[in-house]
Amino acid sequence: MIPHERINQAADCLRNGGVVVIPTDTVYGIAAHPHHPQALARICTIKGRPTGKPIALLAASLDAVHAFGATVSPAAACLARAFWPGALTLVLPCGAGYEGFRIPDHAQTRELLTLCGGVLRVTSANLSGAMPATTAVDALKDVGLEADLVLDDGISPGGVASTVVKIEPSNALTVIREGALSATLLHRALEQSCNHDQPLQKSSAIQ
Predict the structure, then answer these.
(1) Residues 6+ away with beta carbon under 8 Å from 172
(2) Quick count: other Cβ atoms within 10 Å of Cβ 115?
(3) Which phi and psi (to 5°) does residue 170 adopt?
(4) What is the pLDDT along the chain (207 residues), one digit of tens a residue?
(5) Structure pTM?
(6) Is 172 exposed, middle or buried, given 0-12, 13-18 or 19+ CB atoms closer than 10 A?
(7) According to the CATH classification, is domain 4-202 in 3.40.190.10?
(8) What does the chain look like in DSSP terms, one character per residue?
(9) What are the residue boundaries of the structural domains of the chain, listed by start?
């Protein structure tokens, strides 16, 4: 359990443009506030990640996803009801493009997200191409020493990155990265919850 004063310290750091390593239900992440482009650039530098590669958003709630401007289609709503909070990232229409959103199944991380306005840009806390960190110690070895703060909550219970699914305006689905949740499980959930008749298409995974 992370002390509340430590969470408040992390929220202050992020709101002021800092970079923080945070725990989630899947793997540890490195976070920045979406209103601070320089913090996002720092994350890319720290990870050795291409600057043009999008960084998904962790959200405190579905209301926060809506408030950020995302369009949640019927298919997306079905998956959100079935798997949020949890290890599913939904890539949704948002503004002129698309954004990836996930609500983590980690109460203290959602508390941090709420303190930061509802969403944070978060990517796995490891060097680009390396295995995701499942402990704060692992994150420190890869990227944590370059961050402003590290929140330690022990071993990540999931240990596997989220599954990433893109939701088209037509409700067509494409699995971009199969992670903690299988494509078969997602397809079954759609069939059972909203009689969705669009086939679940799988594309090549994001590297």
Answers:
(1) 198, 201
(2) 17
(3) -75, -5
(4) 899 999 999 999 999 999 999 999 999 999 999 999 999 999 999 999 887 788 999 999 999 999 999 999 888 999 999 999 999 999 999 999 999 999 999 999 999 999 999 999 999 999 988 999 999 999 999 898 899 999 999 999 999 999 999 977 676 778 999 999 998 898 888 877 765 444 433 333 332
(5) 0.90
(6) middle
(7) no
(8) ---HHHHHHHHHHHHTT--EEE--SSS-EEEE-TT-HHHHHHHHHHHT--TTS---EEESSHHHHHHTTB---HHHHHHHHHH-SSSEEEEEEETTEEEEEE--S-HHHHHHHHHTTSEEEEEESS-TTSPPPSSHHHHHHHTGGGSSEE---SS-SS-SPPEEEEE-TTS-EEEEE--SS-HHHHHHHHHHHH---S-EEE-PPP-
(9) 4-202
